[in-house]
Design a protein that fits this description.
The chain is built from 9 helices and 6 strands; from the N terminus they run αβαβαβαβαααβαβα. The protein is an alpha/beta fold and 280 residues long. It has one domain: Rossmann fold. Strands 2-1-3-4 form a 4-stranded parallel sheet, sandwiched between helices. A two-stranded antiparallel sheet has the order 5-6. Helix 3 crosses helix 4. It is globular, with a radius of gyration of 19 Å.
């Protein structure tokens, strides 16, 4: 059986015209940046893109679900002079570019858009600002056109999404506490091992910084994602230094098998969200 065609750039304009008004569009957003001495620079965007494609294939065509071209670049906290290479982008440039990309999708007929954040790095605070502006239905490009009232745009950072909505599933398949992989740890590395084992050098994988658990501090992405509504600006409370800088978590625990399991959990949980969101 042929797999469904869900990658938007592969469709013709006539196919898009037919699907856009009834489809959910997933837009993967991340960046290119260092992922320790062991994992490839494309880890964030590549993981995010494959999760979106897997989720889309699980639900398409009920509801119709497509995946937009990846937005490869967003603000990175890493200085490329420190650990080459990280592509840095000014916040205002990123917000303007993302706004115009999403607005173009809306202008093209899409009414349900999910921006799937595969990076974090502060963008979990920045992207919602763009989404909120678009949901006010005011166009920044076409001054004589208003974003349709029935259009809905949402966003989430996918690891935070899982930490909140798939805690039990993650706990069953991981050997370390949920929330401990901020960057280049067991989750991200495992997915790359499954997708591109030839690009991961596990002989160089070393334990990175591990954050201290606390009752009130937003010490993991899951908390950062929604605790802003409870304790905005909550500081980190420290943790343990690792063997290598530029890594948060423990990539030595990564396996190809774990990567496959995490991809399946992510695809299934996001598929559940798509089904609900399509009816909103």
């Amino acid at each position: 059986m042929n797999e469904p065609k869900v990658y938007l750039p592969e469709l013709t304009r006539e196919e898009v015209k037919e699907l856009a008004p009834i489809a959910v569009l997933l837009v993967p957003v991340a960046t290119i940046e260092q992922h320790g001495p062991h994992a490839p620079l494309h880890t964030d965007i590549d993981n995010c893109f494959h999760i979106c494609v897997m989720a889309a294939k699980r639900v398409h065509p009920n509801p119709p679900t497509l995946v937009g071209a990846p937005v490869w670049f967003s603000p990175s906290p890493f200085d490329p002079a420190w650990q080459p290479i990280s592509i840095c982008m000014r916040e205002e440039v990123f917000k303007e570019a993302l706004n115009d990309i999403l607005e173009s999708y809306l202008r093209g007929g899409f009414r349900r858009i999910v921006v799937v954040n595969g990076h974090g790095g502060g963008t979990e605070w920045i992207i919602p600002q763009v989404i909120q502006k678009l949901n006010r239905k005011v166009s920044s490009i076409w001054r004589d056109w208003q974003i349709p009232d029935d259009a809905r745009i949402v966003t989430f950072e996918w690891t935070a999404f899982l930490e909140v909505f798939a805690q039990d599933e993650l706990a069953k398949i991981r050997t370390n506490p949920p929330g401990s992989d901020w960057h280049a740890g067991d989750i991200e590395t495992s997915i790359q091992l499954y997708l591109h084992p030839e690009l991961v050098d596990m002989s160089r994988a070393k334990v990175g910084h591990r954050y201290k658990k606390s009752s009130f501090s937003a010490h993991d992405l899951g908390r950062n994602w929604f605790w802003q509504y409870i304790i905005a600006g909550s500081p980190y409370v420290g943790g343990e230094g690792g063997e290598v800088e530029g890594v948060s978590g423990d990539p030595t625990l990564a396996t190809e098998e774990l990567g496959e399991k995490i991809l399946n959990v992510a695809a299934e949980k996001i598929a559940e969200f798509i089904r609900e969101f399509s009816k909103s």
